[in-house]
Amino acid sequence: MVEEKGLVAAVGPVTWEGLKQELIALPKETLAELVNVWLTTYWTLQNYWMVYTEQCFGFESAAQLDERVWSKLIPAQAHRVIRVLNLGHDLPSLAALLKFTAPQWAGAGFVWEFTEVSDRRLAMVIHQCPMGTYRKAQNLELLPCKQLAPPLYLGLASIINPKIEVTCLHAHPDPARENVMCEWEFVLKD
Q1: For the segment 52-105, what is each residue's pLDDT rounded down to a tens digit?
Q2: Is residue 88 part of a domain?
Q3: Is the separation of the CB atoms in 126 and 112 below 8 Å?
């Protein structure tokens, strides 16, 4: 057995229980940074996947495939996060879900904020996202998030509570606004 920096390297099976014990033993700062590495890698994969799919099959096909993938990924991830965090069915729970799912991960390049969190309304502004940043840097057209992103947010909201209505207040192809990539509103209806 070799042990360096608290990590164990030993002959034998690598199991979730063993790995979990090693993760628990890490300093909290190291564990948080490791989570950030995983989620940054997740967004790197998303960026490359979308760009290369677009190059091979065209934008429309890439967008359709991306929507199909996210429509399956979001519910799976949302249910897992809800279970781990024991979230409820209200807008503060939706806010927590948005913070702790990969689609909104701040360390991966998202710069965003909640502008309102109440019992009836949740509002957020995304100032920067990794896909938009990458596409701008590569001189690629921004994705039409006003059409592509609603299923993502509708999926998350409906898993928390089907009575939550989602409205895109601003997103591409709307005219560009300084320091706003997109803006969203979630309202809990009676």
Answers
A1: 999 999 988 988 888 888 888 888 989 999 999 999 999 999 999 998 886 666
A2: yes
A3: yes
Q: How far apart are CA 106 and CA 55, in angstroms?
A: 28
What Å distances lie between residue 111 and 40, 73, 96, 172, CA to CA? 13, 22, 16, 17
The Cα angle at residue 174 between residues 96 and 159, in degrees rounded to 5:
25
The length of the chain in residues reads 190
- CATH number of the domain residue 66 falls in: 3.30.1380
**Residue span of the structural domain in which 154 resides:** 35-188
Residue with tokens 């928390």: 160
SS3 state of residue 59: helix
Tell whether 102 is covered by a domain.
Answer: yes
Whether 29 is covered by a domain: the verdict is no
42 is written with which tokens? 């997740």
- Burial bucket for residue 133 (CB in 10 Å: 0-12, 13-18, 19+): middle
pTM assigned to the model: 0.81
The answer to whether the beta carbons of residues 50 and 131 sit under 8 Å apart is yes
